[in-house]
């Protein structure tokens, strides 16, 4: 007598026991050796992945059907690294066999701090991706360091050490002291002020002007005009 092989839909059909029961109801035998198929979906674990002969095949009663079953994926428990530094979180998650995806976000937490994690807890399949939201420090509060008498490059380096990430504007101020040339006279904001890491900082920097370059008498009148028209000098009168 011929029997129609029953269709056991891969992954969405019955579990192993249910599949065996349905085949036996059709007077078919089931091969007791069932190969497990690798699987990363916990919902498919224990369900029938394949059958041989395939669905729709006409077979004799008593024929043997071989089944392949989706294996149970290896699960790991996620550790929540919110509040920890990214490198620590990455190392810990990778040690569990998980993949790490980093996404930098604006935050008032120090740069490199994990401020969000998905998933943050529970069991996941080994090899799954965990997304870490990491502070770029843009909104973090820092304290303005003392920069007076430093060169512009030295001042910028010290700002970076303090966590500053914003722009730096340089405004020149005249000085007749050559020893102050190129050095910071004052800053905006001032020393020990609180500011966001992304805020702009203004450096007022001395620029030496040789007083001997000017001509004429003490009040600047009656000269040859050499004390006008230059950097940080008043405009020259017409004709000069």
TrEMBL record:
Enumerate the residue ranges of region (Disordered). Answer: 1-57, 161-240
Q: Which domain of life is it from?
A: Bacteria
Q: Where are the transmembrane segments?
A: none
What residues does the PASTA domain cover?
1-71, 72-136, 138-207
Q: Where is the signal peptide?
A: none
Sorted alphabetically, which PROSITE patterns does this protein's record hold?
Answer: PASTA
Query: Spans of biased composition, class Basic and acidic residues?
Result: 41-50, 177-202
Question: Pfam families recorded for this chain?
Answer: PASTA (PF03793)
Q: What is this protein called?
A: PASTA domain-containing protein
């Amino acid at each position: 007598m011929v029997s129609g092989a029953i269709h056991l839909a891969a992954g969405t059909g019955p579990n192993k026991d249910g599949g065996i029961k349905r085949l036996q109801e059709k007077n078919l035998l089931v091969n007791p050796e069932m190969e497990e198929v690798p699987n990363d979906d916990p919902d498919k674990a224990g369900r029938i992945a394949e059958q041989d002969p395939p669905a729709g095949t006409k077979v004799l009663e008593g024929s043997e059907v071989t089944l392949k079953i989706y294996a149970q994926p290896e699960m790991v428990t996620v550790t929540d690294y919110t509040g920890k530094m990214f490198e620590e979180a990455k190392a810990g998650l990778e040690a569990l066999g998980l993949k790490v995806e980093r996404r930098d976000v604006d935050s008032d937490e120090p740069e490199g701090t994990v401020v969000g994690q998905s998933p943050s807890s529970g069991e996941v399949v080994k090899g799954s991706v965990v997304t870490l939201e990491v502070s770029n420090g843009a909104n973090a509060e820092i304290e303005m360091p003392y920069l007076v008498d430093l060169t512009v490059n030295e001042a910028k380096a010290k700002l970076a050490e303090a966590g500053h990430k914003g722009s730096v504007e340089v405004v020149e101020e005249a000085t007749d002291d050559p020893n102050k040339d190129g050095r910071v006279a004052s800053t905006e904001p001032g020393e020990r002020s609180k500011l966001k890491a992304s805020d702009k900082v203004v450096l007022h920097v001395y620029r030496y002007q040789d007083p001997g370059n000017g001509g004429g008498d003490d009040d600047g009148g009656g000269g040859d005009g050499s004390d006008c028209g230059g950097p940080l000098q008043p405009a020259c009168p017409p004709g000069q």
